[in-house]
Amino acid sequence: MSTNENSLELLREQLDATNLQLLELLSQRAELAGQLGKLKEAQGVPDFDPVREQQMLDKLIAANRGPFDDATIRQLFKNIFKASLNYQKEEHKKHLIVSRKNQPDSTVIKVKDTLVGGKASIMVAGPCSVESYQQTREVGAALKEAGVPILRGGAFKPRTSPYDFQGLGVEGLQILKRVGDEFGLATISEIVDPRHLEEAIQYIDIIQIGARNMHNFELLKAAGETRTPVLLKRGLAATMEEFLHAAEYIVSRGNTQVMLIERGIRTYEKWTRNTLDISAVPILKKESHLPVLVDVTHSTGRKDILAPCAKAALAAGADGIMVEVHPNPAVALSDAQQQLNIPEFHNFLSEVKESGLFKA
Ligand SMILES: O=C(O)C(=O)C[C@]1(C(=O)O)C=C[C@@H](O)C=C1
């Protein structure tokens, strides 16, 4: 071997040893960042701290003796800070009760005789608003005939305008219960005020928390104090991280029976009421063990694309579908445009079932 080859070999050995030292130091640094992340989580402080990062960079630049120039040192350390931040975030996820990292097995929720999040897909259907016993009964009968086990119906309606129909309130919940009992259906209705919860759960089997209330932390906490299953809708502009944290508010109070429902998010698109974020389905299923449903009515606002969207949701791994049905949508007191009438609902259901994606 020539002298040149000898020194190449020697230098490479030194470099390998330095790599290992660097790796050890990086690992030690990551562990320290992990401890800092835990403290920050406990104190409710965000992980990202640009001021602290700037202070560290200033110290490093002042100590830089070359041969790397300052810009290179800055870039290298910025990458290290970024890796630490990612590590802190991953560690936090493990601590979320709703996280699949914390519980690998899927949560299955039993509502009356129906399992949500189990092997079979589920369908939830019903009018946007409970308007009368007769109207709700007609839908209940259609669900029973179609083998759909869960009846939805709004009684407290958070409407955009205060002058629009606000729902029948407790009377609406009583109607739902009456129809539910008559046909053996489980019932679901949105509750908007923590003060209504105690009374509401005497009548309904699932508490719905609507998109506009996903950030209503007092409502989330109050729902977490009950032991009634909760269907939590994704907020209009909520990230998936915010969505899962909203669910965490409920389960951290002891109510572990939470179902998530994607209902479309706000984008610039005008041809649908909202934009169905289909990617949310596999991501939520991956990140969380909670059941994931898709509300095809609110996400699209269009009757003509409900079936393909429901099929897409099921293909993406959704545990169930929610759809609005009204005996006479033209005279509905809310969402008249987007509710299916009963024959349309039967067609919708057949099309979805014929696809083979709706698991029996
Ligand atoms: O010093 C902190 O507060 C940390 O959380 C550690 C650390 C880092 O790894 O350097 C991580 C993220 C912050 O943006 C700043 C610094």
From TrEMBL:
PROSITE patterns, A to Z: CHORISMATE_MUT_2
EC code: 2.5.1.54, 5.4.99.5
UniProt keyword Isomerase, yes or no: yes
Xref: InterPro entries: Aldolase_TIM, Chorismate_II_sf, Chorismate_mutase_GmP-bac, Class-I_DAHP_synthase, CM_dom_sf, CM_II_prokaryot, DAHP1/KDSA, DAHP_syn_2
Xref: SMART domains: CM_2 (SM00830)
UniProt keyword Isomerase present: yes
Keywords: Isomerase, Transferase
Gene Ontology molecular function, alphabetical: 3-deoxy-7-phosphoheptulonate synthase activity; aldehyde-lyase activity; chorismate mutase activity
Domain Chorismate mutase per the UniProt entry, residue ranges: 2-92
Signal sequence annotation: none
GO biological process per UniProt: aromatic amino acid family biosynthetic process; chorismate metabolic process
Protein name per UniProt: 3-deoxy-7-phosphoheptulonate synthase/chorismate mutase
